[in-house]
Amino acid sequence: MNPVKVGICGLGTVGGGTFNVLQRNAQEIARRAGREIEVAQIAARSINPLCQTGSTLITDDVFEVVNNPDIDIVVELIGGYTLARDLVLKAIENGKHVVTANKALIAVHGNEIFTKAEEKGVIVAFEASVAGGIPVIKTIREGLSGNRINWVAGIINGTGNFILTEMREKGRAFADVLKEAQALGYAEADPTFDIEGIDAAHKLTILASIAFGIPLQFEKAYTEGITKLTSEDVLYADALGYRIKHLGVAKRTPQGIELRVHPTLIPAERLLANVNGVMNAVMVNGDAVGSTLYYGAGAGMEATASAVVADIVDVVRVMTSDPENRVPHLAFQPSSLSDVAVLPIDQCETAYYLRIQAEDSPGVLAQVATILSEREINIESIMQKELEHMDGKIPMILLTHKVSEAKMNDAITALEALEGVEGKVVRIRVEQLN
Ligand SMILES: NC(=O)C1=CN([C@@H]2O[C@H](COP(=O)(O)OP(=O)(O)OC[C@H]3O[C@@H](n4cnc5c(N)ncnc54)[C@H](O)[C@@H]3O)[C@@H](O)[C@H]2O)C=CC1
Ligand SMILES: N[C@@H](CC=O)C(=O)O
Ligand code: NA
């Protein structure tokens, strides 16, 4: 049988890794796919120096690949929303299958792309778009298809986790670690996507869709990054027996679906709290299986290529099958997606860590306690402990029980208005993950 012809658009970190893995493991991959896979054409403006492209045909025009009648599968690895969308839609129109690592594209334009793909009977595979090399999309979509999924919570940005780990363990400066993450190829073209939580929100949007059977709704995700975290809070969290991780949480509640990305205190003994560096981990809780955890490299050249190549193999295995019998793009049959509401953040409920810079007098503590109890916010614990280098200014650290964000916002406004409270109250959400 003739080889399946693949055209790769983008030959940077992920494209370069994909090319190398396809060459190095060509025989193993062909034994698995049942056909040889040939990279017949590449479009790229720059080539990762670690990629050995040899004599493969290279152009800088992605549409040459997309319109090349010999190509069966287009692999989109250029990133971004605009050109990537145009080229993917054109590839679909031309009847080609698509593999992409582009979470921004899927989270924002996925509904349109999958509708077009279903009309044309082609596959758009996107395993590398969430948690890099961890096959978490396949796991939720296929391995957990017997479950009603209750929640998904994960560390899904490698750059952010790398930064938090290096800052906590080695005391390194934020900007310095970010530069290293960029040099290692982990960061997005615009690294504010990583540090402001946008990349994690793209990925969480995708996870929520395949977990709950809802359309992609990136615009409804609550997004908070790691740029406002201070070493003080990291140290207080440690002292309380917690770690701060940047988490994406998608949770089914009786009122609707919570979809939120933010720094989170997690009990230090949880496996997720011990996921460090560029590693990612996703916990999925299903009604039948209980809690499950998937761990691995969330970014990087070959780890991400592992997921891209697995998608190519999947496509090769099923490309001649009846489209009706394939695994649906968003796990649920397109006609069975549900319109259950995604909740605004003020209707979400979590426990909280609060750091209040208060005058050290019993009167202030009583006022703080009154403000919280008037809003039915129960205090789990209070700590007033001086850490090193704090010049005797000891904040009040509170852990609360679960409460709605709306009530907590109201309480924080009242706390900040107290005469004995200085400046802003720091609030970080807490998840027990059990
Ligand atoms: N770097 C990583 O670890 C991961 C990246 N991703 C996603 O993979 C995609 C690619 O990311 P990277 O490989 O890191 O990016 P990169 O910046 O290393 O590579 C991009 C490639 O696309 C080419 N390109 C960009 N615009 C082009 C244009 N207009 N015409 C022709 N070629 C063009 C560049 O020349 C380069 O070869 C993005 O969607 C990213 O979000 C997903 C998982 C992990
Ligand atoms: N920039 C992303 C790359 C993988 O998706 C990350 O750091 O996780
Ligand atoms: Na993945």
Structural features, described:
The strands form two sheets. Strands 7, 8, 9, 10, 11, 12, 13, 14, 15, 16 and 17 form an eleven-stranded mixed β-sheet that branches. A six-stranded parallel β-sheet has the order 3-2-1-4-5-6, with helices on both faces. It has helices at 13-24, 26-33, 62-66, 82-93, 103-120, 136-143, 158-170, 174-183, 192-195, 198-212, 231-239, 301-318, 362-374, 405-417; strands at 4-11, 37-47, 57-59, 73-76, 97-100, 124-125, 149-155, 222-223, 242-253, 256-267, 279-286, 290-297, 349-358, 379-383, 396-400, 403-404, 421-430. The protein is α/β, with parallel strands linked by helices and 434 residues long. The protein is elongated. The longest helix is centred in the N-terminal third of the chain and has 18 residues, at 103-120. The mean pLDDT is 96. The chain folds into three domains: 4-133 and 302-336, Rossmann fold (3-Layer(aba) Sandwich); 136-297, Dihydrodipicolinate Reductase, domain 2; 350-430, ACT domain (Alpha-Beta Plaits, 2-Layer Sandwich). It is built from 14 helices and 17 strands. It binds 1,4-dihydronicotinamide adenine dinucleotide (NAI), the ligand N[C@@H](CC=O)C(=O)O and sodium ion. Sodium ion (NA) is lined by residues 127-128, 130-132, 134-137, 307. This is Homoserine dehydrogenase.
At a glance:
Helix content is 36%, strand content 26%.
Task: Detail the topology: elements first, then pairings.
Layout: E1 4-11, H1 13-24, H2 26-33, E2 37-47, E3 57-59, H3 62-66, E4 73-76, H4 82-93, E5 97-100, H5 103-120, E6 124-125, H6 136-143, E7 149-155, H7 158-170, H8 174-183, H9 192-195, H10 198-212, E8 222-223, H11 231-239, E9 242-253, E10 256-267, E11 279-286, E12 290-297, H12 301-318, E13 349-358, H13 362-374, E14 379-383, E15 396-400, E16 403-404, H14 405-417, E17 421-430
Parallel strand pairs: 1-2, 1-4, 2-3, 4-5, 5-6, 8-10, 10-17
Antiparallel strand pairs: 7-9, 7-11, 9-10, 11-12, 13-15, 13-16, 13-17, 14-15
Helix pairs in contact: 1-12, 2-12, 4-5, 5-10, 7-8, 13-14
Bound molecules: 1,4-dihydronicotinamide adenine dinucleotide, the ligand N[C@@H](CC=O)C(=O)O and sodium ion.
Pathway: Amino-acid biosynthesis; L-threonine biosynthesis; L-threonine from L-aspartate: step 3/5; Amino-acid biosynthesis; L-methionine biosynthesis via de novo pathway; L-homoserine from L-aspartate: step 3/3
Catalytic activity: L-homoserine + NAD(+) = L-aspartate 4-semialdehyde + NADH + H(+)
EC number: 1.1.1.3
